[in-house]
Amino acid sequence: MTLIDLANPTKFLALTARVLPWLTGATAILLLVGFYQAAMAPDDYQQGATVKIMFVHVPNAWLSMFVWGVMSIAALGTLVWRHPLADVAAKAAAPIGAAFTFLALVTGSLWGRPMWGTYWEWDARLTSVLILFLMYLGLMALWRAVEDPSRAARAAAVLTLVGAINLPIIKFSVDWWNTLHQPASVMRMGGPSLDRAFLIPLLVMAIGFSLLFVTLHLAAMRNEILRRRVRSLQMMQASQAA
Amino acid sequence: MTALAALIRRDIKIALRVGGGALIGVLFFLTVTVLMPFAIGPDLAVLTRLGPAILWLGALLASLLTLDRLFTADHEDGSLDLIVMGQTPLELACAAKALAHWLAAGVPLIVATPALGLLLNLDASATSAVALTLLVGTPALTFTGMIGAALAVTLHRGGLLLAVLVLPLSIPVLIFGVAASQAAITGPLSFGTPFSILCALSLVSLVIGPFAAAASLRHGLD
């Protein structure tokens, strides 16, 4: 089974129908374990109980960037290889990515209030993530503005690739500028600086949220394929009636 | 080379003649700047402090307003199809069109800046700092905006969608443009750092803009 075999939407639907229940189950178990571990994790000596926001905030923030990365690969698939499912993948991923970005912003804001004394600060990390959120919304607006899906797909693909410039800016914003946001403490040179008591629940949550994304993404792709089939059937019916 | 020069000359001529609409951007810039004191209040000290930000916002909105014209007219009369099918690489043609657009619509904004600076109670050094940052920054606005203009023309949608797509991309230019102007006026940060980043943004957009616009034209027009 290679990527090109999946170009047939019927095969894709059949495969995902078999995979999705397992994925859903694994997501539920991992998230339950993650939430339990996060609840049991000790309080931070400085931040107290608010450190638990991290277990939701960090996976959401990672995924907000990961989803744009997935969409960029899908955009390449649309423009370079003309893979028929690539634009379905990109279109289905955008609202999910926007939701993760929104959750990262909201949880970060709720965490910032007790720690920094403010809900919002116009520093580099927060601003660049906000721009990412606006770009998700712009992409979704673009898909909604155009009736012809293939035309919208190519335009959206170009915009997605241009927007990918923002990803390294978000990642390195905490190193390039002096910001209120703390620097990277897990994915950094010299290993994570986080204590094991926090690191393990965080990783479980990160994997759980990633699986949640895969599950939601596959389900949304199935819906999109079915929606397109319904649309073409309706158009066929309309043309016969006329 | 002569083809590109001819394209630039033609675009500037069209923009400056009746119905071209390059100078309407300056008029819009003036209107936005005049509106601000009504909203903020005519306190000269406050206007001095906000002056660079007002001028940058006005220039950003004015350049956004004129972006629509970059490809639309050529698409309507069919010359865009000729440019896409022509011998000249489409990326270079896009870059030439953007350069012409900047010369016709961007440079007048910079020329108008000193006059508008007077309205906002900016002194000579502050005005020249704003004009200098606009000179370096507006090409970035035009060249990143060109991506949105190319997308909009292939989708037959302009206006609001173009603004929604282009504005997030122009936020970094706005940040560093205003930061450099403020640094030149009040300090204490050095003018050089944000100004160099602004130059870098312009250079990057000079590379990425034509390629992305050409890609979207090539894939989008049929």
TrEMBL record, chain A:
Pfam families referenced in this protein's UniProt entry, alphabetically: Cytochrom_C_asm
Protein's membrane topology: Multi-pass membrane protein
Keyword Transcription: no
One annotated Gene Ontology cellular component of this protein: plasma membrane
Ranges where the Cytochrome c assembly protein domain occurs: 9-181
InterPro entries for this protein: Cyt_c_assembly, Cyt_c_biogenesis_CcmC, Cyt_c_biogenesis_CcsA/CcmC
GO biological process: cytochrome complex assembly
GO molecular function: heme binding; heme transmembrane transporter activity
Residue spans crossing the bilayer: 12-36, 61-81, 93-112, 124-143, 155-177, 197-219
Top-level division of the source organism's lineage: Bacteria
Location of this chain's protein in the cell: Cell inner membrane; Membrane
Keywords: Cell inner membrane, Cell membrane, Cytochrome c-type biogenesis, Membrane, Transmembrane, Transmembrane helix, Transport
Family, similarity comment: Belongs to the CcmC/CycZ/HelC family.
Record's function text: Required for the export of heme to the periplasm for the biogenesis of c-type cytochromes.
Protein name: Heme exporter protein C
Automatic annotation (TrEMBL), chain B:
Residues passing through the membrane, by range: 21-40, 46-67, 99-120, 126-153, 160-183, 195-217
Any Gene Ontology biological process: cytochrome c biosynthetic process
Its biological purpose: Required for the export of heme to the periplasm for the biogenesis of c-type cytochromes.
Record's keyword terms, sorted: Cell inner membrane, Cell membrane, Cytochrome c-type biogenesis, Membrane, Transmembrane, Transmembrane helix, Transport
One annotated Gene Ontology cellular component of this protein: plasma membrane
Molecular function per GO: heme transmembrane transporter activity
Superkingdom of source: Bacteria
Membrane disposition: Multi-pass membrane protein
Protein name per its UniProtKB record: Heme exporter protein B
Major localization class: membrane
Protein localization: Cell inner membrane
Family: Belongs to the CcmB/CycW/HelB family.
Organism (species): Bradyrhizobium archetypum
